[in-house]
């Protein structure tokens, strides 16, 4: 049976709170990151992502978090460590033994999900070039020590999920592809609504015209899309 809205909101709220607490314990290479002091932005961007997930994936990911926390691990820190294989390869070698090795079956699931996400990212970039131009590059080939691509970020995060969660997401993604639905566009629409824009098209137009407000969701910080996202 599908969850009622209030039940989904509670599950998502608990997930985001757990992630935020884990995020506070992440030791960044260059010191504490700005977005570790941006709780409102973090919450809005992560909620936009999870709002687009099916109930099965939410349930499974909530279990993933509980299991890894109980085991004394920090999956958010592991996510950033996996990203470093592309953005900071030498530093990653020193961390390799501290993160779980990714089994071949899980890696195959991640590859399939990422392929769909990159197709969606290409579509989004073509339709909303001004909005996407403020965000990450799409592919890992564009990574630098300072900039993490959509592909690398996604691979890092997905690699922390259980195979059960990955299968639930892949099934959902495939059903959306069959319907011609772009999940990333749906998530981006929710992100811009958090900043008061009625639609992604409206935000894209405001960026093009230079009329977008620079004020972010947290005091002293500017607008940041794609968090978290805001600091990778």
From TrEMBL:
One Pfam family name from the record? DUF4125
Annotated InterPro entries: DUF4125 (IPR025191)
Q: Which domain of life is it from?
A: Bacteria
Protein name as annotated: DUF4125 family protein
What is the organism of origin for this protein? Tractidigestivibacter scatoligenes (Olsenella scatoligenes)
